[in-house]
Design a protein that fits this description.
This protein is an alpha+beta fold. The chain has nine helices and 17 strands. Strand 11 and strand 12 form a beta hairpin. Helix 4 packs antiparallel against helix 5. It is elongated, with a radius of gyration of 22 Å. It starts with a strand and ends in a 6-residue tail after the last helix. The structure holds adenosine-5'-diphosphate and magnesium ion (MG).
């Protein structure tokens, strides 16, 4: 099969209560076996409970129900998130199909934890470190093919595109890069990686350059959109010595892991001044992202990809020639029930976006020296 048609796949994850939460965590209920999420739909009762004027009743009389491709409850394991979302996208990327995994949700709902968390005790590691480890394990077991793996990372912050792997990032070099149609960022640093540790080190360095700011809702809230990119090229291993270079067919896949900034409304995070400016721009990019998803879901002829930097970078990665997986993260706390409803409505809409992903191939000139190294795989 040379293509993967279908639609954007959508999962919802409810994070467990944490110390910073205020009020009871009873806004959502999720059932992993039926893949359904129920959210309270009784705004007035919730308001009275939060004001201490009413008792906390066990459930909303008429909860809103949403069905997804999968749901992860409060007790869900990081491993399961990777197995259901990351692994299928990675498998497809190894045969040349582009993939994108996006995390969407309000600040503090568990996006960064789900995607990027690194831990000494492996079981808490997020989707990206697991994806990197699995990628190198899988290619090491494939003796019939030779792979070229590269990594890049960008952030969209205040409608500016920054190269997170440019070592001169702090001095302003690698800032405000241009984005071409098709989501290609001009002048972006790509690092060739031959071991998982090289790639993990690059992504850790990239994360250290992501802009964080303190808001009322989450101390380490990311105010920027962070996009981690992998480029995976594959060609057949040549098993006979060759004195000349050759043109060989490669499959080339681009894989994006996107940690979006918080989707909450500005007034809730108590943003002022500089932070307000950031929140406004975040809303511009997220608003544009929402509009793109709505336009694609409604099969509109015009899709406003050019309205923000984020959507320009994601050109071709939401729907189109890409296998797109969306993880929406929600916080079960009663005080955020409105945001949770918005997030789940958005997720439902995203399920209507069609994708038509194809195996991407290219003819690439490979030198005699490189082909010779094929006979000695250890040397790669
Ligand atoms: P976001 O990136 O959406 O702003 P974070 O991923 O930073 O949110 O999560 C907010 C807080 O909740 C962090 O302290 C994180 O460790 C914790 N957290 C999030 N998801 C989980 C989870 N599934 N299990 C345990 N703690 C979690
Ligand atoms: Mg975050």
């Amino acid at each position: 099969m040379d293509s993967a048609t279908g639609r954007v796949q959508v999962w919802a994850r409810v994070r467990p209560p944490i110390e910073q939460d205020h009020g009871p965590s009873t806004a959502v209920e999720c059932c992993e076996s039926t893949k359904m999420v129920r959210v309270r739909n009784d705004a007035e009762a919730v308001e009275r409970i939060l004001n201490g004027q009413a008792e906390l009743s066990s459930a909303s009389p008429e909860p809103k129900e949403f069905a997804f491709d999968g749901v992860f409850g409060e007790q869900s394991a990081q491993r399961d998130v990777f197995m259901q979302i990351g692994l299928p996208v990675l498998r497809e990327a190894l045969r040349g199909i582009n993939g994108t995994v996006l995390a969407y949700g309000q600040t503090g709902s568990g996006k960064t934890h789900s995607l990027l968390h690194q831990s000494a005790k492996g079981e808490e590691a997020g989707l990206l470190p697991r994806l990197v480890a699995s990628l190198f394990l899988m290619i090491s077991q494939d003796v019939a093919n030779v792979y070229d793996i590269e990594a890049a990372a960008v952030q969209v912050y205040n409608e500016q595109v920054d190269d997170l792997l440019n070592s001169e990032h702090q001095s302003g070099i690698g800032h405000n890069l241009n984005v071409r149609d098709g989501g290609v960022v001009n002048g972006l640093t790509w690092i060739r990686c031959t071991k998982p540790d090289e790639m993990l080190e690059a992504f850790t360095r990239a994360r250290a350059n992501v802009v964080y700011a303190e808001t009322k809702m989450n101390k380490a809230s990311s105010r920027s959109h962070a996009i981690f990119q992998l480029r995976i090229s594959k060609r057949e291993r040549v098993f006979e010595a060759s004195k000349t270079g050759q043109k060989v067919e490669c499959t080339i896949a681009r894989l994006n892991v996107v940690d979006l900034a918080g989707s909450e409304r500005v007034k809730k995070s108590g943003s002022e001044g500089m932070r307000f400016q950031e929140a406004t721009n975040i809303n511009r990019s997220l608003l544009a992202f929402g509009n793109v998803v709505s336009a694609l879901a409604a099969r509109k002829s015009h899709v406003p990809l050019r309205d923000s930097k984020l959507t320009r970078i994601l050109d071709g990665s939401i729907g189109g020639n890409c296998r797109t997986a969306l993880l929406v993260c929600v916080n079960g706390s009663l005080e955020h029930v409105g945001e949770t409803q918005n997030t789940l409505e958005f997720a439902s809409r995203a399920m209507r976006v069609e994708v038509d992903a194809k195996v991407n191939t290219a003819l690439v000139e490979v030198s005699a020296k490189t082909l010779l190294a094929d006979l000695n795989p250890e040397a790669h």
